[in-house]
Design a protein that fits this description.
The chain is mainly beta and 407 residues long. It folds into two domains: 173 residues, no CATH class; 172 residues. 13% of the residues lie in helices and 38% in strands. The chain is built from four helices and 21 strands. Strand 3 and strand 4 form a beta hairpin. The longest helix has 22 residues. It is elongated, with a radius of gyration of 34 Å. 37% of the residues are buried.
């Protein structure tokens, strides 16, 4: 059957009409109130801003060196360290019939060289209840009998070894009879180096008091008494008084042994309060000549300051460790930054609090994370002499988009 030209034209027209309708149904059309009406220059861009520290200062505070896994004995960097030690004498021995009592210490490292250190041991006064996590030299220095030497020994400049020295038996028997003791203090007059020993907080090789004694039944026995508590006692012969703030320094100091700590401030007024902080990378240029760490480095803690007390640094309040950024610095490198995932996450939180106003920006404290652990120290350029060496914070942030009619 033949189709006329007129019908053929009608069929083609109908097909074209249906095709146009289907095509219109599958194409998206922008709404007149859509995203394209936002100003093109502010769609919530991600921005990067590098801010230099505009203030820097430093001071020192005597480290509380108990509760570390090391004990320090000797001298280094104008710091002397003595040792306080108390023994667990009332749980094993059933009688004050001690026949010998020998202290055993395991040496693990030394810093510096020189002649062996001559150490004298004195009893700490009865009823002076010092606490390992709080005691410092200034607290205990007037609470031992300097006229009663109960032992002497020497420490050699070596990295490993065992030191043994006997204690006065009358004193040890008195400890056992009283079911308690305030312990001993180990001191010296002169030292050319600093020795490290394992403390009671170490995983092994901590100090022991090895005793031989006679039981109530008359039979001899031996036992090792553990150290109940011990602490390094640091005395810093510094050029400036403790807690005296120096805000005209070219070097920012942080020291495990000296207790140096530093403060830096950043002006964040150029970042909008509604910004979301995505990444903060804090960077320092290292003064290698005045820095010294071992191969495992030194842990440094950056923590926000919580009060306005720079006029009296002794009263400065720092955020607790859960709100601090901690990372490891190495004296062999040129620069140090807080780049670990945990440190950057903490740093982001700190800067977000400052920018949003939830946290008042009193500055950032750079503290030794392990004060009294060893002789490690770091020195960073403050930027006072050369602004290009000032600490910097590279901040990546975003701002929310704004509409045409937003204020």
């Amino acid at each position: 059957m033949r189709i006329s030209k007129y019908k053929m034209f009608n069929y083609l027209g109908l097909f074209a009409f249906i095709t146009a309708i289907l095509a219109g149904c599958t194409n998206d059309k922008p709404l007149p109130s859509g995203y394209e009406l936002l100003p093109r220059e502010n769609k919530g861009d991600v921005l990067v801003k590098t801010v230099r520290a505009n203030k820097a200062s430093t001071f020192w505070e005597t480290p509380i060196a108990g509760s570390r896994n090391t004990l320090l004995l000797g001298s280094h960097d104008n710091v002397k360290s003595f040792i306080a030690m108390r023994f667990l004498t009332y749980t094993v021995l059933d009688t004050p019939s001690v026949n010998s009592a020998v202290v055993r210490l395991t040496q693990s490292y030394h810093t510096g060289d020189g002649d062996s250190i001559s150490v004298s041991v004195y009893p700490i006064e009865p009823d002076y209840a010092w606490v390992e996590s709080e005691v410092v030299w200034n607290d205990i220095k007037d609470h031992f009998n300097a006229d009663s030497v109960i032992a002497r020994f020497k420490v050699a400049p070596i990295d490993s070894g065992v030191i043994e020295f006997p204690l006065d038996l009358a004193l040890v028997n008195q400890w056992v009879a009283n079911d308690f003791n305030d312990g001993i203090i180990m001191m010296f007059d002169h030292a050319d180096f600093m020795a490290e020993f394992y403390s009671s907080n170490a995983s092994s090789n901590w100090g022991k008091l090895h005793v031989t004694y006679t039981k109530k039944g008359g039979t001899p026995d031996t036992t090792d008494l553990d150290v109940l508590s011990d602490a390094s006692l640091l005395e810093f012969n510094a050029q400036i008084p403790e807690y005296q703030l120096d805000d005209q320094v070219d070097k920012l100091l942080v020291g495990n042994l000296t207790g140096y700590r530093s403060i830096i401030n950043f002006d964040l007024s150029g970042i909008p309060k509604n910004a979301t902080i995505h990444n903060v990378r804090l960077n320092f240029h290292i003064d290698r000549e005045n820095s010294d760490t071992r191969s495992f480095g030194m842990r440094i803690k950056a923590t926000p300051i919580l009060n306005d007390s720079l006029a009296n640094p002794e009263n400065l309040e720092f955020a607790n460790d859960s709100k601090a950024a901690t990372d490891v610095a190495l004296s062999t490198l040129q620069q140090f930054d807080f780049s670990s995932a945990e440190a950057m996450l903490a740093m982001n939180t700190i800067f977000q609090g400052w920018v949003s106003g939830q946290l008042t920006n009193y500055g950032l404290g750079l503290l030794p994370a392990d004060p009294g652990l060893n002789t490690a120290k770091m020195s960073f350029y403050s930027g006072l002499a050369d602004s290009s060496l000032a600490p910097t914070a590279r901040i990546t942030y975003s701002v929310p988009p704004t509409g045409r009619f937003d204020p």
